[in-house]
UniProtKB/TrEMBL annotation:
Pfam families to which the protein is assigned, alphabetical: Cupin_2
Superkingdom to which the source organism belongs: Bacteria
Cupin type-2 domain: residues covered: 61-119
Name recorded for this polypeptide: Cupin domain-containing protein
InterPro entries found in the cross-reference section: Cupin_2 (IPR013096), QDO-like (IPR053146), RmlC-like_jellyroll (IPR014710), RmlC_Cupin_sf (IPR011051)
Coiled-coil regions, chain positions: none
Annotated spans, Disordered: 1-20
Length: 193
């Protein structure tokens, strides 16, 4: 059994609200949020790590590509533990990469690199870590999406109100790139359909 804490952002959390305290979290019992069709579970964030990194999982069903975005001050890791996830990344010179990651595969996205991903198989899971001089962005998920106590995927997609896209991303070093175009093989094949 894990302890519960009251925090500035949640009435119940399994994560201590201050750094410097060892803790343990049972599977799936971190702070959870639904965003689009995914379940995001935070296990460690800026509050616990003095803003140095976060650790979270993203579970989802096969679906649409998450919109292209970048982080000016944050490096991001994608480690797939189940299923398959297609990662799209553009480096700072404009070269684009696409890689299908399966269980045990790893992807790294440097700061200032546009990226997106698409879950390719139902019941896929990504372990994410984000770190950088700008801090962490784990609270982005529950502020753009919907905090939840549920352990599973949302019954209906948690689509943010349009106004949230104008304010929430800036607070968490997330810049959406609506005009970004991918030129990688799977996007070229999709455009030819």
């Amino acid at each position: 059994m894990t302890m519960e804490f009251a925090t500035p952002y949640r009435s119940r959390s399994h994560l201590p609200p201050e750094p410097g305290r060892p803790y343990f979290v049972e599977k799936g019992m971190g702070d959870r949020a639904h965003l689009f069709g995914d379940l995001i579970t935070i296990y460690a964030g800026g509050e616990q790590t003095e803003g140095t990194f976060n650790f979270f999982t993203c579970e989802g069903a096969k679906g649409d590509t998450i919109p292209a975005h970048s982080h000016a001050e944050t490096y991001e890791v994608f480690y797939v533990t189940a299923g398959a996830v297609r990662l799209f990344v553009e480096d700072t010179a404009g070269e684009q990469y696409e890689k299908l990651l399966g269980a045990g595969d790893f992807g790294f996205v440097p700061k200032n690199c546009p990226h997106a991903y698409r879950i390719e198989r139902h019941h896929s899971q990504i372990v994410g870590v984000a770190a950088g001089p700008g801090g962490t962005f784990e609270r982005f998920f529950e502020n753009l999406g919907v905090p939840t106590e549920e352990l599973g995927l949302p019954r209906t997609p948690a689509v943010p109100e349009p106004g949230k896209f104008a304010t929430v991303p800036r607070e968490y070093d997330v810049r959406f790139l609506p005009e970004h175009r991918w030129r990688t093989p799977s996007f070229r094949a999709q455009d030819q359909r």
